[in-house]
Structures are given as C-alpha cells and as structure tokens.
Design a protein that fits this description.
32% strand, two-stranded antiparallel sheet, alpha+beta, 4 helices
C-alpha cells in the first residue's frame, strides 16, 4: 500500500532543519484494523539530574500498537533531544513521554521503558504503560514473553 500525499501533508519536521522540539507529529495509520507492534529505540538519550545538573544517559524504548495514527520518527527524535538540557527525574521523564505519546496517538496499547546508565553505583529502569484495547495488550505481552524466554535459553 503506497503512501499518499495526504500522509505527509501535515508533517513539518521531516526533511527540514533539525532542532529540539516538544512537538511530535503523526501520520495516518493505513491499517488500523490490524494489531501490529511499532518499536522505537534511542540509545543516545541524555537529560540532566534536576539537583546536580550532571548528565544522565539512557536507552529509551517505546513499543505501541497504533490505532489511527503513527508517530513520525524524526519528530520523536527531536522530542527526545529537547530533554538534553532539562533537569528531570527518571521516573517523571518516562511518564511524561508516555503521556505525550498517548495524547498524540491514542494507541491501542503503549509501553515506554527507560534504562538509565549506572551513576553513583545505581542503574535505574523505569517502565510505564497504558492500555486502551485489552486484546492488543494481551497479544503483544505474549509476544514479549516469548522473546524473553527465547533470549534466556
């Protein structure tokens, strides 16, 4: 199914000058009747400790089952980049990312995971998820459980 001009008509970030931005964009999902998983991973995320201003490094992973919209990946990259000079606790950050994506996409199911590098002897992993359609969550949770079992063998 080829893209149509209407798919990209509202996108302003793709193909333009890159600058940090909290404004993520989305395009229409051409197969909203099908549950499928979209996974976005950024291994170069940085933000600042809100107290010390020291940098925190993380891998951010977003998994979601789209409904009517799909996030445009460059706008997501610029969104993550916008946190580079912001002080934010890891737990708040992952929930903010989740809330912003839910507001933009209204997906069937979404999970955001942040794996923060060890600093001060402690690594932190934060996971937050939201479910609109239980069937989508169950289907992709089973898939994830199978992948974990296979990687442990």
């Amino acid at each position: 199914m080829p893209n149509q001009l209407s798919d990209i008509s509202g996108l302003t970030k793709l193909g333009s000058q890159a600058a940090p931005s909290k404004n993520m964009e989305a395009f229409p999902n051409r197969t909203p009747e099908r549950f499928y998983l979209v996974t976005l991973v950024s291994n170069e995320f940085t933000c600042l400790c809100p107290k010390t201003g020291q940098p925190d490094f993380a891998s951010i992973k977003v998994e979601y089952v789209p409904d009517q919209k799909v996030v445009e990946s460059k706008s997501f990259k610029l969104y993550l980049w916008s946190y580079r000079n912001e002080g934010v606790f890891h737990e708040h950050l992952i929930n903010l990312i989740l809330e912003d994506l839910v507001k933009l996409l209204d997906p069937h199911w979404i999970k955001v995971t942040g794996v923060f590098n060890v600093r001060g002897g402690i690594g932190i992993t934060v996971e937050a998820e939201e479910t609109k359609t239980q069937k989508a969550r169950v289907e992709w949770s089973k898939h994830q459980d199978l992948n974990k079992a296979e990687s442990n063998e």
